[in-house]
Specification:
heterodimer; A: 406 residues; mainly alpha; 2 strands; globular; B: 254 residues; 3 domains
Amino acid sequence: MNSILFSFGVMAAEAHGITGYIYPNEFELHWGLLVVLYPYLTGLVAGAFILASLERVFNVKVIMPVYRLSLLTALAFMLVAPLPLLAHLGHPERSFEMFLTPHSQSAMAMFGFVYAWYLMVVLLLEVWFDYRKDIVIKSREKRGIKKYFYKILTLGSTSLSEKALQFDNKAGRLITIIGIPSAFLLHGYVGFIFGSVKANPWWSSVLMPIVFLFSAIVSGIALVLLIYIVTSLVRWKQLNMACVNKLAEFLLYAMLVDFSLELLDFIQRLYESEESIAILSEMVSNRLFISLIITQIILGSLVPMFSIIMARFGRLPDELRRILYFLAAILVQVGIFSTRWNVVVGGQLFSKSLRGLTVYKLEIFGLEGVFMTIFLLLLPFVILYILTKVLPPWSDSDKSMSAPQG
Amino acid sequence: MQIKKRTNIKFNVPQQLIPLGILFILVITALIVARYLLVPPTFGELGHYRSQAIEDNLAHPMSYAGYYSCNECHDDMMELKNQSNHRGVACEVCHGPAAKHIEDPSEYLPDAPRDRGFCPLCHGYDPARPSGFPQIIPALHNPGHACIFCHDPHNPLLPHAPEECSACHRDIANQKAVSHHATLDCTECHVVAAEHLTDPRSALAQKPVERALCGKCHADDADASKGIPRVEMASHGQRYLCWDCHYPHSPEAY
């Protein structure tokens, strides 16, 4: 009788999607969609900033048309990046206690300072130095409230002398140089937090920060490419094909490195064949088959790499190239989101007993639901729209706008 | 002369740095002021917490009387309990906080839970509990009877020896029940002394030590049903014991 009851129990568990043996506290996943979104957003920030630094520090002049756009993109996504975590925690006001009573031994607590450093010392300062000339000009040309708004933005520094502009340029360059390791730190840190969870064989890997970083660069470049193509289309402006081609090239190189690193990690895990390998293989071939094999590897990596190679190095008309780049960039976004999903959700799908798998069921409504995620995904674009209105990044539309001096 | 020269030196600070410097000083000052105002004064004295919290907790009214207080009047009951399997369970775990009872024994009487819902809090089946810990399924275990009808909580001896191993090893029994080994009796592999049923700690059940035991059914020349998976014992797994790789209570898991 007991065994019949237990069999019913097993059938009920299977109806919920649980297979094998899991501990009672592993039935429900604690880190859901919002925690997936968080590394995705910080990755976009770091990637977009690193792209901007290519022009600024490494003098890749051809990507000049997207330099300011990538800075503003990084800023818009940076402002939204902590919101998924705050929504997930449920008590956003408590996060400020990290700043008041910092605990130097906690990686998560110290991350608040990394974030504050990156936002205030790197992004805001760089944007300010880069746009100061335009802000000063606008504060002189505009009328009414706008005039005062731009006046406040100048912070009282209204000199447009050649010396002052030269200093802007030098300071911007210096901040970008500081910004590159900071961007590496920002996203490497997210990988570090996952990679240092010793008890979780899916996460615990020294390669995790590096893989996170390269996937961040991939997603950031693809996002700026997407935004550039879409905004040019909406503004009825001619795309700078040299710039788009260069972006696609960088995207391809970053993807090759990222894909190789992930493959290396995968092969090493297989070769090491630790005791967790059996359950991880089962998880990859069942639970994560669609999100890892299909969307991350095939649709998110191989197909876009192949289409970029075809578009960049094949003899195709520019229109077709643009379409291929556009589709590739969208697929890359899907692929990188899947990567974050596979890391965050995948790490919680298998039991620490290494004998069973649970399932993740998406919430639709509520603070951690699909709608909240869509809202938080759209919010950076709204902020970016406002930022582009306040600080136009286009070098083609307004003659009075000046590009930063190389 | 030199002093005059020094006073004439002009510091060439770029204009941009002045408002930025002021802004940064303001932000840092705001943080310092916020820390001064918001961090509790006793924070960090003893560790990364507010040490006043200890005083605050000490100021809470006492609800529990503690083991020694019970012993002062109920030493006979205590002696009985201390000999039993419930020796690690404090009186107030079942009877509830009894500080008021100590203050005024006649006015306030502690709880004595008698309904069937209480004991299964510890003895209801839960796979996370250790094997060997007595666990029942309340719906199946003498429904309608109060637990104390058969068991004395101060000396919870079993009214009779368990009839099945699952009485204490339900997690393993349940796992086995849905495995390919469902039809095997536990004693097929384990040697269980009669004393184990009445005093399990004094005579533990014996676990197999040799590969040959599994080989009785799984060796390629074993005299067993044809449907049973066979291996060549000499070459399969070689120096390993069978249960290093296969979990005998659920052998299909690996």
